[in-house]
Amino acid sequence: MSTDSAIMLRRNFMHTLRNPTAVFNAVLLPIVIMLMFVCVIGGAVNVGVNYIDYATPGMIVLAVCYGLSATSTAVNSDMTKGVINRFKVMDISRGAVLNAQVIASMLRSLIAIAGIIGVAFALGFRTSASFPYWLGAVGFIAVACFATSWLTVAMGLAAKTPESAGMATVPLILLPFLSSAIVPAATMRVGFRQFAEYQPFTPIIETLRGLITGHVSGSHLVVALAWLVGAALVGYLWALATYTRRA
Fold first, then answer.
1. Contact 137, 211 (CB under 8 A)
2. Which of 92, 136, 194, 220 has the fewest CB atoms in 10 Å of its CB?
3. Do the beta carbons of residue 111 and residue 27 sit within 8 Å?
4. Helix (H, G, I), strand (E, B) or coil at 194
5. Rounded distance, CA 14 to CA 59, Å?
6. By C-alpha distance, which of 177, 173, 175, 204 is closest to 70?
7. What integer pLDDT is reported at residue 88 of this predicted model?
8. pLDDT tens, position by position, 220-246
9. Taking a C-beta distance cutoff of 8 angstroms, is the pair 102, 149 a contact?
10. What 3-state DSSP class applies to 124?
11. Rounded to 5 degrees, what angle do the CA atoms 70, 65, 74 make?
């Protein structure tokens, strides 16, 4: 199965490299968004600390979400064009097809995150977090990538066309903008503030922000992990059921 997954992963990466739009959305667009918020808007935002220090965790989560559309579209394209049905009659593990899509999505996100962190340090981002906190942050980011990737693969399998598969990920892309990624939820108007406080991305971002700064909140961590584990489980079971039914 590991060999099959490696072959499928190589195939997925070759397809990504041949799609400039997917590369831009997954890797370069998050950096452009970060430069826009930090360098253009950040000077007008008062969050009590250096804005680049506040915004970096949110930009990392945005980088995770911006690459999801390519994953969903690629999965659906393989399904609707009959590629997965061809794999079925070959000596290829069924799990390898889905696992490779998840791993490819995670690797794209991690490449984008590395770019975000590099740009953040170039713009003045500084942190006093110790090595264990940074190690925790890396593990937490990997869990977030894993959960969102499985949910996205399931969406791609369930959609009828590649276009609708891409549109299905729009809520996952927009939700971080309506969280504490850009500004604290407490500064938002009534209605928006409550929505930001209780949607899943706010505790995820606040947990990552705490890990990066060395002051993580236990309550945020528990809620964030609950959301991520739930998303991963739902995505995996949904993807497996849809793959079995449609393939």
1. yes
2. 194
3. yes
4. helix
5. 27
6. 173
7. 65
8. 999 999 999 999 999 999 998 988 886
9. yes
10. coil
11. 15
* CA–CA separation, 53 and 45 (whole Å): 12
Domain count, the chain: 1
Q: List the domain range (segments joined by +) for residue 110.
A: 2-246
Structure tokens at 143: 């869990």
Structure confidence at residue 25 as a pLDDT band (50, 70, 90): low
Count of all residues that appear for the chain in the document:
247
User: What pLDDT score was predicted for residue 24?
Assistant: 67
Residues 6+ apart with CB under 8 A from 12: 74, 100, 101, 104
Q: What is the DSSP string of 36-54?
A: IIIIIIGGG---SS-HHHH
Calculate mean pLDDT across residues 86-107.
75
Inter-axis angle of helices 201-213 and 131-158, to 10 degrees? 160
Residues with Cβ < 8 Å from 178, sequence gap 6 or more? 192, 195, 196, 199
Which pLDDT band holds residue 140 (cuts at 50, 70, 90)? very high
Over the Cα atoms of the chain, what is R_g?
Answer: 18
| Confidence (pLDDT) at 179 | 92
Mean pLDDT of all residues in 75-87: 74
Nearest to 100 by CA among 12, 181, 24: 12
Amino acid at 29: L
Q: Measured in Å, how far apart are the chain's first and last C-alpha atoms?
A: 18
> Global pTM?
0.86
d(CA 115, CA 28) in angstroms, rounded, equals 8
pLDDT bucket at 12, cuts 50 / 70 / 90:
low
